[in-house]
Amino acid sequence: MIPTHRNLPLLLLHAREAAMGHFRPILKHFGLTDQQWRILRALSQAGDELEPGQLAEICKLQKPSLSGILSRMVDLKWIDRHWSAVDQRRQTISLT
Length: 96
Prior knowledge:
Elements: H1 8-29, H2 34-46, H3 52-59, H4 63-75, E1 79-83, E2 91-95
Antiparallel strand pairs: 1-2
């Protein structure tokens, strides 16, 4: 068994969970998941559009997971996706 007092990643995970334990009831009250909140906060703090890759890095989310979360958030009309006029492979995400 690995001693937890010497395992920094595990200690950081425990600290994160302890902090989020206070905020999850608030997020749940507003119908938000942790991930949705991180995306909304990142977009709000950026003050501008972000590309999905930037959001994944800022929010520490895997790109495949981010894709599904963004689709649901678009359906809820919380965010907008904009395709680049210059490069149709690129998109940006903004708050509604």
